[in-house]
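Project outcomes to date are best conveyed with an example. Our students and postdoctoral researchers have been running inverse folding experiments weekly, and each run begins with a structure described purely in tokens. The record below, which covers 155 residues, was selected by the lab manager from last quarter's runs and is presented without edits.
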């Protein structure tokens, strides 16, 4: 179920949102990053079959400054310091609408991205919410046979 979605293409981004709480005892974690598609997942995994994962899905990610675990988590507006920090790290001016601030225990963390979706899902905790394009193995991506002079290891 989609809880919220922001796109940096829109004029205004609603931040300072309340992220749904996961199961008691579960915390948000840096869960997955897909380099080839610039996708980042921060997940609060469900602890029982009756509950749901809470997923923060970032798209078109350019920069990440995050810890691996967030005991509590909220999204906040980027201030001038956040924008300057992101611009400094990327070596160029970053538009404020692309700087997403995550707060945990009073600390501010930065993601520079084009899109953010907050969702609840009942998928398995190790299932990725990101769709992958099909791979055509007929185009030379299949495993190649071993060379004739290859010696199989013995046990």
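After processing, the design step wrote out the following sequence:
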């Amino acid at each position: 179920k989609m809880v919220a979605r922001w796109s940096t293409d829109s004029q205004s981004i609603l931040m300072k949102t309340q992220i749904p709480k996961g199961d008691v005892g579960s915390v948000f974690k840096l869960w997955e990053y897909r380099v080839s598609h610039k996708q980042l997942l921060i997940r609060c995994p469900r602890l029982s079959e009756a509950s749901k994962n809470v997923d923060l899905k970032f798209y078109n990610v350019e920069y990440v400054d995050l810890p691996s675990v967030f005991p509590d988590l909220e999204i906040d507006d980027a201030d001038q310091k956040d924008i300057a920090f992101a611009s400094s790290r990327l070596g160029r001016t970053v538009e404020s609408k692309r700087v997403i601030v995550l707060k945990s225990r009073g600390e501010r963390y930065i993601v520079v991205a084009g899109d953010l979706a907050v969702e609840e899902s009942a998928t398995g905790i190790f299932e990725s919410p990101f769709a992958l394009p099909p791979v055509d193995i007929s185009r030379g991506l299949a495993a190649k046979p071993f060379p004739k002079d290859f010696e199989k290891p013995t046990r």
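Residues 9-16 have pLDDT under 50 and may be disordered. Residues 75 and 102 are 5 Å apart (CA to CA). The training component of this project remains on track.
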